[in-house]
Structures are given as C-alpha cells and as structure tokens.
Amino acid sequence: MEALPDLSPAGVQAARDTLVELATAVTHHGFDDVNTRLAPALAQAAKNLAEQRLADADLSSAMLARELNVSVRTLQRAFAAGGESVTAYIRERRLELARQALSASRLAVSEIAAHWQFADSSHFSRSFKQRYGLAPTEYARQNT
Questions:
Q1: Same domain, 19 and 64
Q2: Which residues span the domain enclosing 64?
Q3: What is the pLDDT of residues 39-48, one digit of tens each?
Q4: What sequence ranges are listed for the domain HTH araC/xylS-type (predicted)?
Q5: pTM score over 0.90
Q6: Domains contained in the chain, number
Q7: How far is residue 94's CA from residue 123's CA, in Å, rounded to a whole number?
Q8: How far apart are the C-alpha atoms of 47 and 53, rounded to whole Å?
C-alpha cells in the first residue's frame, strides 16, 4: 500500500487486475501463467518498473521478472501477448530517450550511448540509424 501513491493510473489498474487474477487463481487452486487477462497487467507492471530503471545497467528481463516475482518465461509470454518482447521494449525506450537527449543536450554521442546502457557508441549509432534513419550526429546537428 505504501507504493500506491507512486503508481500511475495505469500502474494502479495493473495492480488491481493482478490482484483480481491472483484471487481468482487462489480460489481455483491454480495459476495459469498464460492467462490472457493477466498478461496485459503483468506487461504494464513490467513497463512501469522498466521506465524507472532505463538508465540502470542491470535492467533486463531477468531483473524485471525477479522484481515482479514471476519467471522470465511468464514475463516474456505477457509481452508476447501484446505483440512485443521485453528486450525490444527496453531498447525502444532507451533509443527514444537517447533521441530526446540528442536534441536537448550538448553531450557527446558516446556519453549519451553510455548513459542509456548501449554496449558502445558504434552499437548505439547502428541501432539509432536503423530506428530513426539518421546517424546520431546527423540527428543532433539537425535538431539542436
């Protein structure tokens, strides 16, 4: 209950849905980790948690699953039910925040890449260009 004021409306809804599913599972003496009604709530809870930790080096499917007390496979299934993967979600969010940083700051591309936990500047540059159609330096030059 202490965390409730810190949750977004989507987080409150995810927590409510998860509690309903948990109560249902306890009532029926079982838990189906493929339950499609639970998947959106679990995926949203993972997204909320990931948003808070996008700059953390240890952010991963395993870390999110551990924090949410589910298996990695259960978490992956929850994301797959929505047509995405945990890894892709994290990468897309990091790329988006890096894109925003390129427009709003004078940091070097390598500093932005390191902050958002890309393995190195060349990996970041390839990923950025694939996603946005421009190299990070070109994007920064056009948008600052």
A1: yes
A2: 4-84
A3: 898 999 999 9
A4: 44-142
A5: no
A6: 2
A7: 13
A8: 10
